[in-house]
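comment on this one:
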Amino acid sequence: MKLKVTFSDFLVGMPAGMLIFISTLLFTTLLGRLLSGITFAGRDWLALPVLAFNAFVVGLLARLLRPYHGLGTALAAGIVGMLIFLGLRLTAGAENHYNPVIFGLPGLVAIPIFCMLGAWWMGRQRMGKGA
């Protein structure tokens, strides 16, 4: 299957990229509330699996709703989500304390990769192992 990204993929991918952003903020806030009394060194890294899972689910949904254009839509959603996180990172002042993991390089790389992985996996499950 060829990966061909069209303008319509970006139109569908814009709400999907925003869904990655909103769901990541929601679930990391809930996770932070649950772990509010616990302090440890790697606490910022707990948000990365949440971000990866959200991007994976959005990729699944993109392929489920658009079976033939799902890979392009998932890539567009990953790029839009990555641009949202990057835009917030670049416009943040020094007084804002964003999570350096999800707004940094690991999060920016994980979003399109896990979106594409989710879309690829859904296509493989729907069309059989040869897809």
Notes: The chain has one domain: 14-20+42-127. DSSP finds four helices and no strands in the chain.
